[in-house]
Amino acid sequence: MQTELTSPASETVFESRYASSPNEVKGMNTDQLRQNFLIENLFVANQFRWTLSFFDRYLTGGIMPTSGQVTLEAPDQLKAAYFLERRELGIINVGGSGQVVADGTTYDLEYKEALYIGQGTKSVQFSSHDEANPAKFYLNSTPATHSYPSRKIARSEAEVVELGSMETANHRVINKLLVNSVLPTCQLQMGMTELKAGSVWNTMPAHTHDRRMEVYFYFEVPQGQSVCHFMGQPQETRHIWMQNEQAVISPNWSIHSGAGTSNYTFIWGMAGENLDYGDMDFCAITDLK
């Protein structure tokens, strides 16, 4: 179930998604699964697009500036004086080079570079260096109770892990960008997994983590190709077919894994009770149903 509201100036679109139990999801058809978990349109010129999941009050959004600076405003639904009054924000640029100005400090973000903005930051503006090749700022935000310093993370500063193999079609590089081993955050963690050519499976063996929820954003999906995202309880899985630059909400009780018709890249974002990246309850591949 969802609601969508657009501001009078059409600068912000805000949508709410209620939390769903495993029993509810078992009875959902294709359209219902997509309506509850898939986020299809994240990048519209000069328009902030937000989806609030009631799982950990996680906000997923995007902004593509094409006409000067655009300013981040607090939607009425947050009941806040400014967007980051009680939140923290993670940003990864998946478009052309751009710029973020946070309380007067300027950060230039190239493709696949990340920026963390701490709770209490009052003013945030976004712009593109070349409006003919605009930046696409992918945004994740979670509630925060402490103000940590804002900081840009270049790709060279990421914690990098290489996993999988060509033999199992899951040779991939995990770039931990906004995680507690790189910089302090309240609960938000974000990173980026790049699949090598010839590999299509991500996050396999699949897992759940009761103490955290997650959102996946798929991009660099070649034209004419797709990704099939798997979700649900290990013994009762479901799937959602996804296209380039779309995101999907993953409840804490659900597995989250995918396979594409080509290799691709995805950004993972997490929130919950802890910052332990290894807090996972793995499912044997042969036990999935």
UniProtKB/TrEMBL annotation:
The molecular function terms of the Gene Ontology recorded here are: 4-deoxy-L-threo-5-hexosulose-uronate ketol-isomerase activity; zinc ion binding
Cofactor(s) it depends on: Zn(2+)
Protein role: Catalyzes the isomerization of 5-dehydro-4-deoxy-D-glucuronate to 3-deoxy-D-glycero-2,5-hexodiulosonate.
What does the record say about how the cofactor binds? Binds 1 zinc ion per subunit.
Q: Which UniProt keywords apply?
A: Isomerase, Metal-binding, Zinc
Q: What is this protein called?
A: 4-deoxy-L-threo-5-hexosulose-uronate ketol-isomerase
Per its record, the protein catalyses:
5-dehydro-4-deoxy-D-glucuronate = 3-deoxy-D-glycero-2,5-hexodiulosonate
SUPFAM superfamilies in alphabetical order? RmlC-like cupins
Family indicated by similarity: Belongs to the KduI family.
Decide whether keyword Zinc is in the record: yes
Q: In which pathway does it act?
A: Glycan metabolism; pectin degradation; 2-dehydro-3-deoxy-D-gluconate from pectin: step 4/5
Instruction: Identify the PANTHER family for this entry.
Output: 4-DEOXY-L-THREO-5-HEXOSULOSE-URONATE KETOL-ISOMERASE
Q: Biological process (GO) annotations?
A: D-galacturonate catabolic process; D-glucuronate catabolic process; pectin catabolic process
Q: Which residues bind Zn(2+)?
A: H207, H209, E214, H256
Look up the EC number in the record and give it: 5.3.1.17
InterPro entries listed in its UniProt record: KduI (IPR007045), KduI/IolB_isomerase (IPR021120), KduI_N (IPR027449), RmlC-like_jellyroll (IPR014710), RmlC_Cupin_sf (IPR011051)
- Carries keyword Isomerase? yes
Which CDD domains does UniProt cross-reference here?
Answer: cupin_KduI_C (cd20491), cupin_KduI_N (cd20294)
Q: Which NCBIfam families match?
A: PRK00924.1 (NF002091)
